[in-house]
Structure to design on (223 residues):
């Protein structure tokens, strides 16, 4: 489905109305049908992805070819307005104290890929989650979703722009939107959004012009 925008359709974002059988109440994240994403924040996500996948890392950032981040925003009926993007730096995925549960899920449910199973997935650092909550409290926002990359094309899914079964299991009952960033072609970064990782619950993403309230949070770290 072509991207929509207030003025002209840009490249980069796909979307379609949610098609799940439920009828969630307006005013809840489950009831969102439209997501407004300021163009500078889309550029922040795309830039984060390209930088990580081309091996350019900042201080305190895990050196691996994947990008994960949080989206903060506000609800307006069935419209979700993204107001800030928080690229995450630390991945606890390989922490021996907590990696076991993720290893088990990946081994059981992930489709085989060129990325080793022990490197698949992201576990956010508690400090960064607290930073996001503090930022939300200061700016009257809420954490509304997260984004992550799919970079390896599969024969049956060359764009990799939808959620996998593993994505869905990890997002189940989270009450948040999963933004899949297709990075199989770094010259054609695209984003789609699915409630709790369900491909039958997609929302239309609309790129908006820059607004004074769009915030790309600086991720310089002393970690």
């Amino acid at each position: 489905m072509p991207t929509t925008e207030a003025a002209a359709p840009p490249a980069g974002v796909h979307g379609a109305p949610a098609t799940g059988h439920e009828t969630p109440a307006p005013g809840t994240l489950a009831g969102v049908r439209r997501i407004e994403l300021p163009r500078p924040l889309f550029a922040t996500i795309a830039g984060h992805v390209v930088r990580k996948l081309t091996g350019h890392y900042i201080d305190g950032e895990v050196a691996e070819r994947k990008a994960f981040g949080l989206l903060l925003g506000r609800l307006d009926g069935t419209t979700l307005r993204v107001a800030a993007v928080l690229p995450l730096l630390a991945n606890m995925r390989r922490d021996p104290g907590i990696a076991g549960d993720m290893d088990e899920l990946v081994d059981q449910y992930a489709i085989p890929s060129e990325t080793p199973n022990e490197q698949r997935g992201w576990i956010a650092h508690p400090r960064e989650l607290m930073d996001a909550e503090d930022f939300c409290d200061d700016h009257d926002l809420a954490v509304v979703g997260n984004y992550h990359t799919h970079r390896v094309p599969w024969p049956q899914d060359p764009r990799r722009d939808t959620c996998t079964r593993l994505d869905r299991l990890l997002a189940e009952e989270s009450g948040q939107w999963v933004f899949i960033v297709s990075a199989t072609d770094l010259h054609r970064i695209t984003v789609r959004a699915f409630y709790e990782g369900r491909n039958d619950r997609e929302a239309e993403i609309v790129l908006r012009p820059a607004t004074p309230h769009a915030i790309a949070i600086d991720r310089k770290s002393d970690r």
Observations:
- Helices lie at 39-53, 99-109, 126-139, 165-171.
